[in-house]
Amino acid sequence: MASPQTLFILGATGHLGSQFLVNLAHSPAIPQLRVVALIRKLTPETQAKLKEIYKDLEIVEGSLDEAAEIKSQAEKADYVVNCASSDHLGSIQAILAGLGNRSESTGVPPIYIHVSGLGIIGDNSRGEFVAPEKVPHYSDIGFTIDQCLPTNPHVDCDTVIVAAGTRKERPIRTMILFPGLFYGIGDGIRKTSLLLRLYAGLAVQAGFAGTWGPGYSRVESLHVKDCAEALVIMFKAALEGKADEGRDGLYFAAAEQKVELREMARLIGDVMFEKGLLEKGGSHPLPPEVIAPFSEGGWSLLGSNTSVTPARLKLLGWEHRETRKKSFYESIPEEMELVLKDMQ
């Protein structure tokens, strides 16, 4: 019997990455794979949890800065899924170099699925109010990276990935997922979203929960389980030869709900104030010294509006079922309980 093909995953212990492994393990449409996971800080507990999620799993200890190890693992993999940092150019270049070598040696183009984000299309409104009809709207069908502001996050890295997915020599089958803000308590190792953990940490620094500018920015969101299922559906379509790839392999993931970042911060602030963790509740603009370390990238991500249609995923049959069960705002109180417990 032929040995299973290999999937190399980065970000396997994160909110989305570990949820993807859960969904992958329970997907009858995906054949059994040998999974190799790059883990930065390996503990016996983490190892046990990962192997409980996915049985045929091997762990390689290392960080995103270890390009040689990443290149080596990518060269040995049939597929790579990157749920780690969207903008770590060195690790992305290492993945593409390894996959390019594999393509050349086997004659079979490997698959690379990369998780980016909708911050790439942000309008840089600096948190000021913009009428919904004046916010640029995009469909992923017909979307190209050069439509984005060149200073926006993800542009540089995603341009490199698309280039690798369109070349004729050492070809790679590339696909990029651009999710909105994903939230909700997951089934994987990391239960809570990075966004709520970030805002809670900044609230402790400032003494209140706050926003970039006045916080009128409105963005897409979706439940982490729906985001993970989008990755599984993309992967399945690629295995079946039905996926859009390369220049066309750009997939938006968003549900039919908008989140106003000012309202999100208000809910976080009220929860923390009620627990005696902040000096005041509600939402207020964050002081310059708190947001300065995030530079312009922070404004692009958290001071911009986004508006999209996820046409490609819909054509593949994707639905945001978990998002319909519990909205972003409804999820905040219970998710914040876990966030604050981890902070303590």
UniProtKB/TrEMBL annotation:
<protein>
    <submittedName>
        <fullName>Predicted protein</fullName>
    </submittedName>
</protein>
<dbReference type="GO" id="GO:0005737">
    <property type="term" value="C:cytoplasm"/>
</dbReference>
<dbReference type="InterPro" id="IPR036291">
    <property type="entry name" value="NAD(P)-bd_dom_sf"/>
</dbReference>
<dbReference type="GO" id="GO:0004029">
    <property type="term" value="F:aldehyde dehydrogenase (NAD+) activity"/>
</dbReference>
<dbReference type="Pfam" id="PF01370">
    <property type="entry name" value="Epimerase"/>
</dbReference>
<dbReference type="InterPro" id="IPR001509">
    <property type="entry name" value="Epimerase_deHydtase"/>
</dbReference>
<dbReference type="InterPro" id="IPR051783">
    <property type="entry name" value="NAD(P)-dependent_oxidoreduct"/>
</dbReference>
<feature type="domain" description="NAD-dependent epimerase/dehydratase">
    <location>
        <begin position="8"/>
        <end position="88"/>
    </location>
</feature>
